[in-house]
Amino acid sequence: MQNNQFKKGELYSFITGKASTAIARNLQKKFNSAGLKVTIEQWSVLYHLWKQDGMSQQELCKATFRDKPSITRLVDNLEKLQLVKRVPSGNDRRINLVYLTRQAQRLQEEAMNLAEATLNEALEGVPPDRIDVCKEVLQIVYDNLK
Amino acid sequence: MQNNQFKKGELYSFITGKASTAIARNLQKKFNSAGLKVTIEQWSVLYHLWKQDGMSQQELCKATFRDKPSITRLVDNLEKLQLVKRVPSGNDRRINLVYLTRQAQRLQEEAMNLAEATLNEALEGVPPDRIDVCKEVLQIVYDNLK
DNA sequence: TGCATATAGTTAGTTAAACAACTAACTAAA
DNA sequence: TTTAGTTAGTTGTTTAACTAACTATATGCA
Fold this sequence. Notes:
DNA-binding; 7 helices; mainly alpha; homodimer; 3-stranded antiparallel β-sheet
């Protein structure tokens, strides 16, 4: 145990993740301003479908670190927005494959550009090597607790 | 603009803050196992009251990075749990000062120890200087977007 | 074949976040 | 002192997270 790494007064911001909250909020505002009617959570699902269309809900769970009910709801809402479509798998009738609609495909570039812009704003003035350290630490944290 | 710091494929985990989610989830489980009947969000309010009792709701907003309705509801629930009490300010009748009950004071040590344990687990194997870099980067991110 | 077990997804219930619209109380300037 | 603007807090609505309990389908093994 590395007991003195954190003094009690410093626990808070690490645990509550205010930085990532701020990033998410900033991106949501950009979406709203641009008239993109998606939430960050919905975006996080679309993001993975843009990388690989036709994932199952289970795969989306793993990719987005969400549980099954969350994905059910998110896909419900994305279907209502006509951005994705559930298609039953031919091989295994338990499985829903989730496919992007034309409409969602058209959103990709704009949404990704806004996400990139948010990150560039967030990381303004941070040297690349420090970003790398930060990414590594956060990855270790995630792996340690998984 | 530092345009090539992030490749598009790397946006995701930074924006969605999976590390802080994992930390929060881990701490919540520790609370549950220990029979502490508080949520992480409630803990985040208690945390600041343990540092300084009798803060106003507005001050709690700033400290926890939440908006006013969120604090209203968290304090509502903490009151139901008999962990805090609203006391109208003498000087300004708009203001509620939020005070810890005896019961909440008794929770402090146990809750803080669990939070510390979570962080030690999370940061196992991460050298202290890298943690410092990480904290600095996250602080800059937060300030950049504020 | 048949049954236990695992997997994919849904539904229900509680808690919380974000936003907008609101009331009440205070402050400062005409 | 009246009015305009600000600040503190509450309420309503939508979206989402997490847990538990559920249905339906598939798989593995006796």
